[in-house]
């Protein structure tokens, strides 16, 4: 692991880290009439689309699929994806990862400030659909929220995570970012933050290649006693 000052704050991406959302499915199904949806694999989604703003993700997906006039077709594709995503959300297609809920609760018990930072404009709605207690939703667990902001630069630029650190009032070097996409890991590292890669889709190699400081398949694998001391390490027992 790289050397950081003692960590004292956490920043979470939403889709793929906290929630199993239908983003990937929406991107795939919206390809109908543009390209063969079966060609849009999970590996392609993670490597080229995940973590990026909607239009940038649409361009990246079409370019990865070698669709002619990708930049021209991307705006309509992005609109179709959003429409399909909203349909899936309303149909109950959003679930929280149990290990993520446990991890957030434990980090909160440490007294650490936490932020959510996602390029998705649907992140707040999705988190509000997850109940974590009487009258409380997952969104209520965080002291700062920069989801869906209009940004000059998307990931792998660190802008969104630097905004989150500022909102928390914590210097970036004392924050760790939990991310599931290589672009997000690169953004965290570019912002001078520790990067925790969450490999739920057998994509640990890509997160390591992006230079994540620690890669786990479940947030239960993070050593909480060591985290309480300000360091990211894997649980050994």
Could you describe the 3D structure shown?
This protein has 237 residues and is α/β, with parallel strands linked by helices. 40% of the residues lie in helices and 13% in strands. It has helices spanning 23-29, 42-49, 54-64, 70-90, 98-109, 123-128, 159-168, 182-190, 204-209, 224-227, and strands at 9-12, 19-20, 95-96, 114-116, 131-133, 136-137, 144-145, 175-179, 194-198, 214-216. Strand 5 (131-133) and strand 6 form a beta hairpin. The two termini are 19 Å apart. The mean pLDDT is 93.
Using brief descriptors, characterize the structure shown.
DNA polymerase, domain 1, 40% helix, single chain, alpha/beta, Rossmann fold, 2 domains, two-stranded antiparallel ribbon, 237 residues, 10 strands, globular, 10 helices, six-stranded parallel sheet
- Tell me the structural class: alpha/beta
Kindly estimate the percentage of residues that lie in beta strands according to DSSP.
5-15%
What gyration radius follows from the Cα positions, in whole Å? 17 Å
Tell me the quaternary state.
single chain
